Amino acid sequence: MGHAYWKTNALQHAARMGVRIATTVDPVALGLTTITGLEGSVEVGEPMPSYLFSCSGKTKSCNQGEFNEAAFNRILFGRDNDGTCVGTSQERRGMCDYFDDIKSENVTISYQNSGMGRAGFPPDLMPLVKISISDIQHDYVFVDIFTSIGNIGLLSAEAISLAEDLKSGL
Questions:
Q1: What backbone phi and psi angles, to 5 degrees, belong to 143?
Q2: What percent of the chain has pLDDT over 70?
Q3: Rounded mean pLDDT of the chain?
Q4: Long-range contact pairs involving 78-81 (C-beta distance under 8 Å, separation at least 24)
Q5: Looking at residue 1, what is its pLDDT?
Q6: Is the pLDDT of residue 21 over 60?
Q7: Segment of 43-57, 88-102, 119-133 carrying the highest mean pLDDT
Q8: Kind of pairing, strands 52-56 and 61-62?
């Protein structure tokens, strides 16, 4: 049971690391970089209208605009963007450095209006960034002895943070 707890905790830590990185690098949803908030009858300085950009690592697409694969890979593999899930220095780690079973198809990143920010040129974006990790298969060795659910489980985790400054991180 301790191993199951450790794996679940490691996955949650990977989600928290992913959202930390996602709030300080270029957005995965390239459409987020082109909105001004002035669409419709909104004027400069008014509250930013509602928006939701959701990007799937499985389909490499976003519901609005294009998918920024370089930004996605930086979140998944870390600031060194080495394309591997092996330990590296703490400031260079990505999601899969904390939980190496995470693949791009398990990750969804969304950006939605937080209620903060103002419309304008450029907009004052402060989106809520959510990292969702789902469908991670894990074999809970010996759990079938104690329960009737079997020993294969699907793990998932989420983390949300406010992005006050989306930019290209180091």
A1: -65, -30
A2: 83
A3: 84
A4: 78/21, 79/21, 79/169, 79/170
A5: 66
A6: yes
A7: 43-57
A8: antiparallel
> Measured between alpha carbons, how far is 168 from 63 in angstroms, rounded to an integer?
22
Choose among 169, 149, 14, 160: nearest CA to 85. 14
Strand partners, 17: none
CB 60 within 8 A of CB 67: yes
Amino acid in the structure at residue 9: N
Rounded CA-CA distance 14/18 in Å is: 6
List, for residues 104-154, the tens digit of each pLDDT value. 999 999 999 998 888 987 777 889 999 999 988 776 665 556 665 555 567
What's the per-residue H, E or C state across the chain?
Answer: CHHHHHHHHHHHHHHHHHHHHHCCCCCCEHHHHCCCCCCCCCCCCCECCCCEEEEECCCCEECCCCECHHHHHHHHHCCCCCCCCCCCCHHHCCHHHHCCCCCHHHEEEEEECCCCCECCCCCCCCCEEEEEEEEEEEECCCHHHHCCCCCEEEEEEEEEEECCCCCCCC
